[in-house]
Amino acid sequence: MNQWRIGIASRSLAMALVGLFCCATSVDAQRKNNAAPSPKKAKINLPASVRTKPTPRMNVVAVNPNTRSKIQSAAGQLDYYIESELSKQNQQANEISSDEVFLRRIYLDVAGRIPTLAEAKAFLESRSETRREDLIDRLLSSPDYVSNMYNFWADTLRLVERPQNNIVADPYLGYVKDVIRENKPYDGWVYEMLTADGKVWENPAVGFQLRDDGMPLPYIDNTVRIFLGTQIGCAQCHDHPFDQWSQYQFYELAAFTAGTRTRIQRGSPGYQKQNPANLLINEARTKHDKGRVPGEFQRLVRANTYSVSEVKAALRLPHDYAYADAKPKQVIQPAVLWGEVPTSAKDGTPREQFAAWLTSPENPQFSKTLVNRLWKRFLGIGFVEPIDDFRDEHPCTNERAMDFLSEQLIRNNFDMKELIRTILYSRTYQRESSDFEITSGDQYFFPGPTLRRMTAEQVWDSILTLAVRNPWPFKRPTAADMAPVMDVNFGNADYASVKKQSEKFRETYFLSRYKRSLNEHAYQGNVLCRASELPTPLPAGHFLREFGQGDRQSINGSQQDATVPQIMAMFNGPITHVMLEAGSAIVDNVIEIKETKDRMDAIFLSVLSRKPNPRDRRTAAGELSRIRNDAVGYGNIIWGLLNTREFLFIQ
Question: Domain range spanning residue 106?
């Protein structure tokens, strides 16, 4: 029995296809008998917004076609370093993967979803010698890439719409997506986030600072961990027990950002003797029954008090500092952990000095950390593991390959797409995968990628690919969308004008109302849209959370462990029901095909990106012959394929 028959037990779910396939069959029969067809139309339960073909929603900066030969050469050099290390370890590289395996892998890794039936057929029928490079370049230049990489960075940067009740971070989330879409140089993007000033809808990069609002020391810990792959958090309270970092060094680094402020300051418009937000809220209490200020009024006013700026300030050691190198409450002068602040930044503000040091081409950890993160994303395991804990106890498995990719990143002016392109062009990435568990304690030298389970977002977006024609019925709001609704100028604001503005806020981006407005795109309570556009964090019982999407409270907090609720969600969850609804993409594709063989090809290509092999065909034929109604049999086959390891894993 083939693996994919695991799903056949859910027969009642496949019954949704009965009327659809029967209608198609009856039409064919009536045409043969020269009778006027009169099939009963199936009821469409899917939202109209997801059944229409999507219109282009974003202008994505494409890869540079003129650098292909340069990238091919770099990929060849990368392969040389990988294969040399394999030889030293008396290991051999895996064979190059088949076109079917490569097709599915590249779509999941770059687009974040499986290919559509049309996309699969187009690639597999192509005889072009450059079809792999052509597909890589096309996907890297697509909105799918933006959506997929947004999910990657959302997990790393812990992106949530409300870090605190009164912080509205949606413009920051839109900003992260925009820098991916624009392919902004990585060093410039990070520098921008570390030095940005203003309100989040004026300068959305300030959202990075606001994510850890009120936690200046954890902010330093998180920043260094995300961008330098170094964990110094233990040194916040005492010298690091397993690494070289001292508490004194931690405070020296934190002194660079001691002057960061996240609230409007005295002297700001409307802020003279009292905070203008308090004045407006106090007035609102006098005008509402029992002093109950509407939530949207309070949220809007409070949100306008968050504005990032920098002032002159000193940082002192804690009162219980216990080491001999300094005294408790001593003022600390800023100092970096290694290297020096670049000369060009020495006259800048402390935050500018910190950002310049962190993002400098002369700071090897900055480029290496990004290389390591992306290498793990596409190969399954980092050169250094854990990916954000570089130290002697965690050796790099291929120093030459990591150094080479880091040098390439710097040489290409921190162009993240060119780095990804180099990895994807390589033979190493395009080889057959290996089944390797990092918990085994052995080092992995990359004979090919590792076998990986899809991320929660990849599973969700792949099911949408099977189910809907438009996976973008709406998009996440941007700073430009929100600024006219959100911005309150306290210098000339009064209660009446702010009340009117808060009512507009309630109808647009007030979170609870905004979430309800998305229900027009929902099926059985699930909003049918790419994971990158959905509210974050999602509730604990949502399909994405069941499959391991984190609550975005910790860096890279997603999980990929298998659980019983995941099995139930795949077997009987509403998001997988949508595939068998009238009007779904896979139903529409299959009922247009007359011959059983061609239908089977379409089903396998749609779900697994390959045609059925002889054994698959025999098993499918057995299922169809065992069920009186072909529609139920086809539904069982689709369901069975969806519930296989082959569907859920990236080979």
Answer: 67-139+393-452
